[in-house]
Amino acid sequence: MVKVLMEDDADLGVLSGKTVAIMGYGAQGNAQANCLKDSGVTVVIGETEILGGKKNPSWEKAKADGFEVLPIDKAAEKADIIHVLLPDEVQASVYEGQIKAHMSEGKSLCFSHGFNIAFKAIVPPKNVNVIMVAPKSPGTEERKRFLEGFGVPGLIAVHQDATGNARDIVLAMAKGCGLTRAGVLECTFEQEVYEDLFGEQAVLCGGLSELIKAGFETLVEAGYPPEMAYFECLHEMKLIVDLVYEGGLSYMWHVVSNTAEYGGLSRGKKIITPEVRANMKQMLKDVESGKFAKEWIEEYKKGLPNMKKLREEAANHPIEKVGKEIRELFKKK
Ligand code: NAI
Ligand code: MG
To answer: Contacts for 324-329 with beta carbons within 8 Å, 24 or more apart?
Structure first.
């Protein structure tokens, strides 16, 4: 089993006298900046006051939360550790225009997702540390657990160690965010990115939503009421996943009825057929080869034409309409 790094493996002392610039006060930036500050780390926020012609609410929010807020280039100049928590697809151009000039010797460039380093959209100079601290959780949950005195698990990685203590620095960042309270695993940037992209495409986001829709469509096309199909294929998904989360698949099988257990165990493999498994293998290959990343970067540069079409298709699916009505009906009043 891989070693799980805990509180005693990390020393916040390596961050004393250092300034961490959190670039981007969004989902992760907000959570990590506040946790690090509460852990006694000196934090400044790098943000953009006017974004897309409008006042950027993240700039205001960071100020209201009591941080020193600077334009990204000024924050990069001031900081020893530059933690890039901007959306992955904008990181490369912001790095090029506002951060790169301030990557002087001995500084650390930090990320919470390895995308731009693993796919070489950002190529930092050799004389800086390149590190990653990736909480395995949405920002809101991370902050909530931290305030409860615990934390969420996370991953750390060192891509470049220019100072000889890059690993100590990233471990301290993880500790400051509360991650070593729950447990931290060490990996490479590539492992984190490939696994993460594959997981969200094949299983968590892509696979799950298509499975839900296919089940719903099968029932509705056969004449069952959409409301019933919604409950069966979407609403109950959460209840089943909660059981799996709590005690693994075997606990779920134990809790559901014997009929559900026999039906599921004997029929599930008919859904995930050898062809589906072959598709999964291909998806992983496309992630590892950089084919997916290239497509996504080009899509972003073109102004997201395909994404807009896909979003509209997804939003207009009948399951969304019936879901909205049902959730309204069953809301606590
Ligand atoms: P986000 O979507 O919340 O955006 C962060 C901030 O970036 C925004 O508040 C905005 O002020 C700024 N921003 C947006 N577009 C910009 C532009 N064009 N130019 C300059 N600034 C811009 O980002 P999020 O979701 O917090 O992601 C940050 C990093 O954390 C990413 O690398 C992501 O993969 C990683 N991550 C995110 C998780 C999550 O829970 N959302 C979980 C684990 C990792
Ligand atoms: Mg993920």
So the answer is: 325/227, 326/227, 326/230, 326/231, 326/235
